[in-house]
Amino acid sequence: MVQTITSVEEFDQLLKDTPHLIVVDFFAVWCGPCRMIAPAVEALAKEYEGAVTFVKVDVDQATELAQRCGVAAMPTFLFYKGGKKVDDLTGANEKVLREKVARHK
């Protein structure tokens, strides 16, 4: 299951409380590529359930968080482990997304 993060505080708490890999999907409702890759993100969340936490952030609802994370294009995926950013991916490239999840899990 993919959780939705709506605030900086919620995001910071998640980073603090989660030692394993977190994949943060910054998206926008109006973004076509975001809608195209959404089913792949859901599938990865099921595949790695319990080992990787997947969260979505709507950049129009959580503007402050998107700005703090330096998100300029959607979709942008940020990868965190042990509270630190370990990787990123901009664009709806399912193959690269899968590779990065497998590499950092």
From TrEMBL:
<feature type="disulfide bond" description="Redox-active">
    <location>
        <begin position="31"/>
        <end position="34"/>
    </location>
</feature>
<dbReference type="InterPro" id="IPR036249">
    <property type="entry name" value="Thioredoxin-like_sf"/>
</dbReference>
<comment type="function">
    <text>Participates in various redox reactions through the reversible oxidation of its active center dithiol to a disulfide and catalyzes dithiol-disulfide exchange reactions.</text>
</comment>
<feature type="site" description="Contributes to redox potential value">
    <location>
        <position position="33"/>
    </location>
</feature>
<comment type="similarity">
    <text>Belongs to the thioredoxin family.</text>
</comment>
<feature type="active site" description="Nucleophile">
    <location>
        <position position="31"/>
    </location>
</feature>
<feature type="site" description="Deprotonates C-terminal active site Cys">
    <location>
        <position position="25"/>
    </location>
</feature>
<feature type="active site" description="Nucleophile">
    <location>
        <position position="34"/>
    </location>
</feature>
<dbReference type="Pfam" id="PF00085">
    <property type="entry name" value="Thioredoxin"/>
</dbReference>
<protein>
    <recommendedName>
        <fullName>Thioredoxin</fullName>
    </recommendedName>
</protein>
<keyword id="KW-1015">Disulfide bond</keyword>
<dbReference type="GO" id="GO:0015035">
    <property type="term" value="F:protein-disulfide reductase activity"/>
</dbReference>
<dbReference type="InterPro" id="IPR017937">
    <property type="entry name" value="Thioredoxin_CS"/>
</dbReference>
<dbReference type="InterPro" id="IPR005746">
    <property type="entry name" value="Thioredoxin"/>
</dbReference>
<dbReference type="InterPro" id="IPR013766">
    <property type="entry name" value="Thioredoxin_domain"/>
</dbReference>
<feature type="domain" description="Thioredoxin">
    <location>
        <begin position="1"/>
        <end position="105"/>
    </location>
</feature>
<feature type="site" description="Contributes to redox potential value">
    <location>
        <position position="32"/>
    </location>
</feature>
<keyword id="KW-0676">Redox-active center</keyword>
